[in-house]
């Protein structure tokens, strides 16, 4: 029986650690996964990588969403109080004016202690209870300090509100083929010394047959702006020196290509560096198209941006 159990366990490990395929299976959507994750479905699966929660706890508490963060904090708070309530009940009569053996009384007494609320009717009645109360009070102070620091770090972390066009377009710029991406600052302030970079990422095989993920930086007509307050149209001319020269949608898809766009700058309000990024897969690049014009003027002569048409494109003749 033990032999069969070991065999089943070994088979389970082999299934879990099966070799990865060098190419997506037929009909698979694996080639549609973004290198720069836009949602959970775009996250690259890590096989064989151990990621223990407590190995990088601070980073995890800063990166998880607010609902998970609040749920985690509430769970830790309740577990600590439940544990101390059980410890108080180990000695009968340790809490004065508490009903004997009543867990709810011990739990609420623990809540009063860890939060330093101040006792009403119940109070520690024995040396054991006083020692336990001292330990719990110290733990409560530490818990409040850690929670306050984490909440402040999450709120104070500088972030950029940069709007990227849903698609990239390949059309013409001054009569030459060009790749164009559009950005906009969604905040009513300015990003100082803003910089933009576009990188082409694609699969290539070496002469030895090894599969590599190659990165090619695209030369931009303008890659920086002293003040990023309105929109920023990023243009890459496709000439003979461009990695996109002669590219087609089918060729890009065959090489699992992706365009990664990154931008950074200094938020004038926070006086802190901020950054944002996105990426475009081959089916998110429109050929022989251009973005519609969105900058105009109001009736009273003021410059305006029509964000309703920010992602709109038109087909070229």
Report on the architecture of this protein.
The protein has helices at 2-16, 57-63, 66-89, 103-114, 127-156, 249-254, and strands at 95-96, 123-124, 162-164, 168-173, 176-185, 191-205, 211-217, 224-228, 231-237, 258-267, 272-280, 285-287, 289-291, 295-297, 303-305, 313-315. The chain is of the alpha+beta class and 317 residues long. The chain folds into two domains: 63-156, Helix Hairpins (Orthogonal Bundle); 162-315, Sandwich (Immunoglobulin-like), CATH 2.60.40.1400. A hairpin with a 5-residue loop joins β14 (295-297) and β15 (303-305). α3 packs across α4 (103-114) and α3 (66-89) packs antiparallel against α5 (127-156). The longest helix is centred in the middle third of the chain and has 30 residues, at 127-156. The protein is elongated, with a radius of gyration of 29 Å.
Task: Summarize the model shown.
By secondary structure, the protein is α+β, with helices and mostly antiparallel strands. It is 30% helix and 29% strand.
Largest sheet: 5 strands, mixed
Stretches where pLDDT falls below 50 for ≥5 residues? 1-18, 27-31
Q: Give the number of DSSP strands.
A: 16
Strand content: 25-35%
Count of separate structural domains:
2
Helix content: 25-40%
Query: By helix and strand content, what is the structural category?
Result: alpha+beta
The rough form would be described as elongated
Order of helices and strands: HHHEHEHEEEEEEEHEEEEEEE
Number of helices: 6
- Tell me, what is the CATH class of the largest domain? Mainly Beta
Kindly provide the radius of gyration, computed on alpha-carbon positions and rounded to a whole number of angstroms.
Answer: 29 Å
The end-to-end distance, rounded to whole angstroms, is 74 Å
- CATH architectural label of the largest domain: Sandwich
């Amino acid at each position: 029986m033990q032999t069969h159990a070991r065999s089943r366990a070994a088979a389970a490990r082999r299934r879990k650690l099966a070799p990865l395929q060098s190419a997506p299976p037929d009909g698979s959507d694996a080639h549609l996964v973004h290198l720069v994750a836009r949602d959970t479905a775009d996250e690259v699966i890590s096989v064989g990588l151990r990621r223990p929660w407590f190995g990088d706890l601070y980073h995890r508490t800063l990166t998880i969403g607010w609902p998970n963060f609040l749920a985690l904090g509430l769970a830790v708070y309740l577990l600590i109080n439940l544990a101390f309530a059980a410890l108080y009940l180990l000695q009968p009569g340790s809490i004065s004016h508490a009903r004997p053996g009543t867990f709810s009384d011990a739990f609420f007494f623990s809540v009063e202690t860890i939060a330093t609320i101040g006792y009403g009717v119940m109070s520690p009645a024995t040396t054991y209870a006083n020692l336990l109360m001292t330990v719990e009070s110290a733990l409560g102070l530490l818990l409040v300090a850690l929670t306050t620091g984490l909440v402040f770090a999450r709120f104070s972390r500088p972030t950029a509100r940069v709007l990227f066009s849903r698609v990239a377009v390949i059309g013409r710029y001054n009569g030459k083929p060009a790749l164009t991406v559009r950005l906009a600052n969604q905040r009513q302030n300015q990003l100082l010394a803003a910089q933009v970079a576009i990188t082409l990422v694609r699969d290539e095989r070496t002469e030895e047959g090894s599969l590599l993920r190659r990165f090619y930086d695209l030369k931009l007509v303008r890659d920086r702006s002293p003040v990023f307050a309105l929109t920023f149209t990023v243009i890459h001319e496709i000439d003979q020196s461009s990695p996109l020269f002669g590219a087609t949608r089918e060729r890009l898809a065959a090489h699992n290509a992706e365009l990664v766009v990154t931008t950074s700058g200094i938020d004038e309000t926070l006086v802190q560096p901020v950054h944002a990024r996105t990426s475009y897969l081959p089916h998110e690049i429109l050929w022989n198209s251009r973005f519609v014009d969105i900058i105009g003027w109001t009736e009273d002569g003021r410059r305006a941006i029509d964000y309703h048409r920010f992602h709109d494109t038109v087909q070229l003749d």
